[in-house]
Amino acid sequence: MSLHPAIFLDRDGVIIHNRKDYVRSLEQVKIYPQALRALARLKDSPYKIVIVTNQAGIGKGLMTRAVVDEIHACILARVGQSGGRIDGIFLCPHTAADGCTCRKPQPGLLLQAARELELDLSRSILIGDALSDIEAGQRAGVQETILVLTGVTRREQVARYPYRPTHIVESVADIVLDQEE
Question: For residue 79, what is the domain's CATH number?
Fold first, then answer.
């Protein structure tokens, strides 16, 4: 069995605009144009493209799993229309108080994706907008973690956190362009 490398992407703040009160409807989905372009460029790469996302709004009763599934279907459609692909979406519906192993910064979502999609975590990349994304990736054994500044974390916060990203970039588009050069 040959394992595949993956590019793990957080959803809110990386692919779509983050909202403090959660993205709770299709009308609130605002996809970053640079994310669509980056995903289109990655379509023919050897990497599996995987979204890993905490969705505590489900656990808090602010939205249903069905609504989140509709949001994901919308994202998949838009990415496909733009020439990109997503190979899997893995989500944690729990709140921080639930103490689960799938809520980032725990590595559970990445480990689940690795099992189900036959991924080699040591050859994979994680891209997130929060330091909890970076920590989850490193705890799962991902060697390259990239913090994008389109979401919740600011550059000055990184020095105070024990899990530091391999790279810090402005957006997902910067990563794809660097890999092509």
Answer: 3.40.50.1000
Given a contact cutoff of 8 angstroms between Cβ atoms, the answer to whether 39 and 84 are in contact is: yes
Strands 125-128 and 6-9: parallel
Whether 1 is covered by a domain: the verdict is no
Q: How many domains does the chain have?
A: 1
Q: Which of 10, 69, 98, 129 is catalytic?
A: 10
Q: What is the pLDDT of residues 53-73, one digit of tens each?
A: 999 999 999 999 999 999 999
DSSP characters over 39-75? HHHHTTSSSEEEEEEE-HHHHTTSS-HHHHHHHHHHH
Expressed as residue numbers, the domain containing 26 is 6-180
Is 12 part of the annotated catalytic residue set?
A: yes
Of the candidates 12, 21, 44, 178, the residue annotated as catalytic is 12
Is 130 a domain residue?
yes
pTM listed for this prediction? 0.93
The answer to whether 129 is a known catalytic residue is: no
